[in-house]
Amino acid sequence: xxxxxxxxxxxxxxxxxxxxxxxxxxxxxxxxxxxxxxxxxxxxxxxxxxxxxxxxxxxxxxxxxxxxxxxxxxxxxxxxxxxxxxxxxxxxxxxxxxxxxxxxxxxxxxxxx
Amino acid sequence: xxxxxxxxxxxxxxxxxxxxxxxxxxxxxxxxxxxxxxxxxxxxxxxxxxxxxxxxxxxxxxxxxxxxxxxxxxxxxxxxxxxxxxxxxxxxxxxxxxxxxxxxxxxxxxxxxx
Lengths: 113, 114
Description:
The structure holds 2 protein chains of 2 kinds.
Chain A (H helix, E strand, L loop, with lengths): L4 E3 L2 E4 L5 E6 L6 E8 L3 E9 L2 E5 L6 E5 L5 E5 L8 E8 L8 E2 L3 E5 L1
Parallel strand pairs in A: 2-11
Antiparallel strand pairs in A: 1-3, 3-8, 4-5, 4-9, 5-6, 7-8, 9-10, 9-11
Chain B lengths: L3 E4 L2 E5 L4 E7 L6 E7 L5 E8 L4 E4 L2 E6 L4 E6 L8 E10 L4 E5 L3 E6 L1
Parallel strand pairs in B: 2-11
Antiparallel strand pairs in B: 1-3, 3-8, 4-5, 4-9, 6-7, 7-8, 9-10, 9-11
């Protein structure tokens, strides 16, 4: 069974732009969670989607948004990029809710110049 | 607000040693606690999940324990190998206003020397 895939793997943007990251969960998994990882703040929870509904959200500004499609694939969008948004963005899927074992993708490395 | 800490921040041991990584959390009202490993530049790999009603979980050379009353979990690695070199993170899963929420510790960077 294929693992969690994330595209693109690397991305370079400039301040003020917006970006969309994509995550395809393991087949059959219905929960997708997103995380931001930076050297200073570590791993921080962004949001979780289950059956196309956002069921939980971390403490991030409204510039960070996401959605989930009927096939469980998920996208996250960051608008008006700031230098501090440079990070590794990780997506994880789980069979049911995020309290189950999570399986992580390789991440998207976003650099904001 | 849940806070998760991990001690030590980094650890270097010779191959074959048994070692213990520590994780502490401030809010004992957790659903479960999970341990992950992260290799450089890669995503996380789930190692063990301990439900709040459980005391420990084992997988091969790994054993994780949970003591909710003291807010502590430990990951024991037996007979360490160079391939165990990675960053180990613990995460507490807690309820919040919207549902469950993951709070990760900063990680312990482990180096196992041949």
